[in-house]
Amino acid sequence: MAPVLLGRALQAGWSSRPGLPSNSKQAPSLKTCVRLGGGYLCNITPSQFAQLHESHLPASMTGADFLSLSQHEHWDEATQVVPEQQYPVAAATAHPIFENFRVRTMQQLLSHAGSDPEALVQAGELMFQSHASYGRCGLGSEGTDRLVNLARDEMTNSQTSSSGPCIYGAKITGGGSGGAVCLLAQDSLAGQAAIERIRDKYHHQTGYKPDVFVGSSGGALRQGIVRLKLPG
């Protein structure tokens, strides 16, 4: 989370200094930032990011360097900037921008997947892209990477069969550092068998047998919400 906020602040600082060339070494002023995308990176399109902002971001930056630019201000109460930590600023800033585009595109693909089999293939590729982007942020784990690679191998091997692929895509999911992988699979006996093969291979390689959960839910839309009011 912290490197995303660093990237957002740096972009805002550069945008408030439009006269500086993209290769300028002069530090941006973070005291007079504009709120790019209304304060949310996901409101910036991938093309806007690539054309206007990406070149201004460092690949990485220490927390100490950022704090010196921001005069020790940090605009998020849930995180803290660790001075000695090296943050992958560019990758972590790009992730929510491209992820929002991937999510919206996937929504459109799934809406007509029943009439267009190629839509599932494209949706699966978006999942693989999402997983790779998340990993570039320094998140994820060896276990989830292994599961995604096994899913990709299963998909590749099944493409030569007459029935086509049973696995279309995979990505890390869950809160925080993940720990779970979401698979987009064919709703058939062949799809179930493919998932079992992935689980068995993971078990053989690691000694751990993952649990498999099938289906999805409406989440908060179905269950409703609970509001908690703290004393005082």
TrEMBL record:
GO terms for biological process: galactose metabolic process. The keyword Nucleotide-binding applies. GO terms for cellular component: cytosol. GO terms for molecular function: ATP binding; galactokinase activity. Residues 161-203 form the GHMP kinase C-terminal domain. InterPro entries: GHMP_kinase_C_dom, GHMP_kinase_C_sf. The keyword ATP-binding applies. Keywords: ATP-binding, Nucleotide-binding. This is GHMP kinase C-terminal domain-containing protein. It comes from Apatococcus fuscideae.
